[in-house]
Automatic annotation (TrEMBL):
<dbReference type="InterPro" id="IPR013751">
    <property type="entry name" value="ACP_syn_III_N"/>
</dbReference>
<dbReference type="InterPro" id="IPR013747">
    <property type="entry name" value="ACP_syn_III_C"/>
</dbReference>
<dbReference type="GO" id="GO:0004315">
    <property type="term" value="F:3-oxoacyl-[acyl-carrier-protein] synthase activity"/>
</dbReference>
<dbReference type="GO" id="GO:0006633">
    <property type="term" value="P:fatty acid biosynthetic process"/>
</dbReference>
<dbReference type="Pfam" id="PF08541">
    <property type="entry name" value="ACP_syn_III_C"/>
</dbReference>
<feature type="domain" description="Beta-ketoacyl-[acyl-carrier-protein] synthase III C-terminal">
    <location>
        <begin position="207"/>
        <end position="294"/>
    </location>
</feature>
<protein>
    <recommendedName>
        <fullName>Beta-ketoacyl-[acyl-carrier-protein] synthase III C-terminal domain-containing protein</fullName>
    </recommendedName>
</protein>
<feature type="domain" description="Beta-ketoacyl-[acyl-carrier-protein] synthase III N-terminal">
    <location>
        <begin position="98"/>
        <end position="170"/>
    </location>
</feature>
<keyword id="KW-0808">Transferase</keyword>
<dbReference type="GO" id="GO:0044550">
    <property type="term" value="P:secondary metabolite biosynthetic process"/>
</dbReference>
<dbReference type="InterPro" id="IPR016039">
    <property type="entry name" value="Thiolase-like"/>
</dbReference>
<keyword id="KW-0012">Acyltransferase</keyword>
<dbReference type="Pfam" id="PF08545">
    <property type="entry name" value="ACP_syn_III"/>
</dbReference>
Length: 294
């Protein structure tokens, strides 16, 4: 697998900790978040905007896309799929299009699926797009966590290093859930325990599978859950913090969009041959890790 294009889109509306009336110092020290972006637009709109930029970066027209995979937990409609809506907006009518829902780990799952489809589909557009502000109870203390955004990548076949490991544990299904017509409900302590348990395990498994060590990793792009969680994960796997990329300070947790947004923002720092570790955990629990070569 080779990434040939990236793109991202963040709504213009900034919602600061001060605006929410919460303790800015506490939220920033515990979560790493100063502000987040919010919108009344749909996940499809955000995803289409990020996709257009990824296609431009890849030098491809929409007609050259053979498959569209959208990772979202906040679809524009119950049906049709958000992927179908984006396909129409892009006029990418030659592409197979479908959604997956692994919540915050959705992009990692989608990347893994795309790798398996590349023998039959040349150019695959993978989109992470979420609008969690629209399922947030703004009167609840957990309103500080999420922001809206979208990121997209175009992948094709390549000889680049690629290894992945996925996992799931449905016993955590009630620790983060959103029911039809409702707002998300989260046990933040359970999220922290799951993240700092499952992610180090799956990262060590994928490192072993790739026959490399953490010292061989040049960059770590994790899902942007909280800075406290990410520092503990880095400690558990023995990763220097200077190798870890974050953007939750400005965007909050953008769910399935967080990793592709990071990829788009950080790509200028990557050198050919750099080994990049992606890892995420989402509601379910659903989690995974990918090692890819730039």
């Amino acid at each position: 697998m080779k990434i040939i294009g990236t793109g991202s889109y963040l709504p213009g509306n900034r919602m600061t900790n001060e605006y929410l009336g919460v303790d800015d110092d506490w939220v920033y020290s515990k979560l790493g978040i100063k502000e987040r972006r919010t919108t009344t637009l749909t996940s499809a709109f955000l995803g289409q905007a990020a996709s257009a930029r990824a296609l431009f970066d890849a030098g491809l027209s929409s007609e050259e896309i053979d498959m569209i995979i959208v990772a979202t937990a906040t679809p524009s409609k119950l049906n049709p799929s958000t992927a179908a809506i984006i396909q129409d907006k892009l006029r990418a009518y030659s592409a197979v299009a479908f959604d997956i829902n692994a919540v915050c780990s959705g992009f990692v799952y989608a990347m893994d699926m795309a790798q398996k489809y590349l023998n039959d589909y040349k150019n695959i557009l993978i989109i992470g797009t979420d609008t969690f502000s629209q399922i947030t109870d703004w009167n609840h203390r957990d309103c500080v966590f999420f922001g809206d955004g979208a990121g997209a990548v175009v992948v094709t076949q390549g000889s680049n290093l690629y290894h992945s490991k996925l996992g799931a544990d449905g016993r955590g299904q009630h620790d983060f859930e959103t029911r039809h017509g409702g707002t998300f409900i989260m046990d933040s302590k359970a999220v922290y325990v799951a993240g700092t348990t499952f992610l180090p395990e799956i990262i060590n498994q994928v490192l072993e599978y790739a026959d490399i060590t953490i010292k061989d990793i040049d960059w770590f792009l994790p899902h942007q859950g909280s800075i406290t969680m990410l520092k503990e994960i880095a400690r558990c796997i023995g990763l220097p913090l200077e190798k870890m990329k974050t953007n939750m300070k400005f965007y909050g947790n953008t769910a399935g969009a967080s990793i592709p947004i990071l990829l788009d923002e950080c790509k200028k720092e990557f050198q050919p041959g750099n080994r990049i570790l992606l890892a995420a955990i989402g509601s379910g629990w659903a989690y995974g890790a990918i090692i890819l070569e730039w």
